[in-house]
Amino acid sequence: MALHLPPETYLWFKTFHVIGVVVWFAGLFYLVRLFIYHVEADALSPDAQAVLKPQYTLMEKRLANIITTPGMVVTVAMAVGLLAANPGWLHQSWLHIKLAFVALLLVYHLFCYRLMGQLQQGICTWSSGKLRALNEAPTLLLVVIVMLAVFKAQFPTGPATWLVVALVVFMALAIQFYARKRRRDAEQQALSQGA
């Protein structure tokens, strides 16, 4: 049974849900980028590490606690409001699939907190390359979640969909290859300067 809410209430829920999603994803994208910089600081001089590591720790905490997690809370709270206004959605398979991907995103969010704690304690074993790959996960989740929200039960499976998926995968791989090339170039430059 749907709640009898004024029509604009649904639009307010939807507005703040979209805002929450944007804030949440922006935070997740930048948080792992900070993790990469934090890990790469290990290759710097002890003096540089003494300055940068505490700064990255502070930035990570602030980003996670002031932007990313509140974005997640707003997203989830407004989603509950949307479902209260449209309880029939709870019986539709597209929503079950979307919620499964959102659950994966929540696990990713919590995993980022775990990595943040490990970085603060100096016990993180993730390389910058692995973190770069991890940073692509929310992009894939974002694409699927948004497509499910927009298309609902008419989720497209035609060539255009596979083209979009291929483009997203290509972009993720291109970023990985570019980062690897930059690392190799930097290593070669360091070797040539040391010789």
TrEMBL record:
Binds 1 heme b (iron(II)-protoporphyrin IX) group per subunit. It is a multi-pass membrane protein. Its cofactor is heme b. Its main location: membrane. Keywords: Cell membrane, Heme, Iron, Membrane, Metal-binding, Oxidoreductase, Transmembrane, Transmembrane helix. Its EC number is 1.3.99.-. GO terms for cellular component: plasma membrane. GO terms for molecular function: metal ion binding; protoporphyrinogen oxidase activity. Catalyzes the oxidation of protoporphyrinogen IX to protoporphyrin IX. Belongs to the HemJ family. This is Protoporphyrinogen IX oxidase. It comes from Candidatus Synechococcus spongiarum.
